[in-house]
Amino acid sequence: MSVKQPTFGTRELYDSLAESLNSDPTWLVKAKAMTFSMAHVYRYPDDTQRTFRMEFRTGKICDVTEFDDPADLPETAFVLRGSSDDWRDMLVTEELSVNVAMVTRRILVKGKMGTLMKNIPQFNYIVRRLIELDPVVPGDEPG
Q1: DSSP reduced 3-state for 103
Q2: The whole model's pTM is what?
Q3: Do the strands 37-43 and 78-83 form a parallel or antiparallel pair, or are they unpaired?
Q4: For residue 6, which of 16, 30, 44, 130 is within the disulfide window of CB 3.0 to 4.6 Å?
Q5: Which domains does the chain have, with CATH numbers?
């Protein structure tokens, strides 16, 4: 039985992430102190944006919400913004590492840096899990 790959840049990817992390005992121990929200903002070449907000409660993702306009986001502890190409390079092709993405500001981070630094292992775990979900880029599906 094969598992359906989630589609890159969609809520489906973040719902799959929630299901995967919430059933991972290693993650639940590692992230038990995580009680805050985080959003990933994708900026597309036509200037449209898609935003995916995750609400963490003691490490579990208890809610995933999609917004067409990042201005509609409620208060969110961390907002990571980047072009859809940069997100793809980080989460699909792995041509861009998390560290390089942030240092070069290809992925911009807004939030409390102390909390961010304290949770770097958890953020890296989330990115690794997104990569492991092996998302399909629309138009790249095998035909």
Answers
A1: helix
A2: 0.89
A3: parallel
A4: 16
A5: 11-132 (3.30.1050.10)
- Greatest CA separation found in the chain? 46
Distance of CA 135 to the CA centre of its chain: 12
**Amino acid in position 98:** V
Spell out the long-range contacts of 136-140 with Cβ–Cβ below 8 A and sequence spacing 24 or more: 136/5, 136/6, 136/7, 136/8, 137/7, 137/8, 137/9, 137/88, 137/92, 138/7, 138/8, 138/9
Tens digit of pLDDT for each residue in 117-134?
888 899 999 999 999 999
**Contact yes or no for 17/126 (Cβ under 8 A):** yes
Residue in 102, 103, 94 with CA at minimum distance from that of residue 78: 102
Under 8 Å between Cβ of 41 and 81: yes
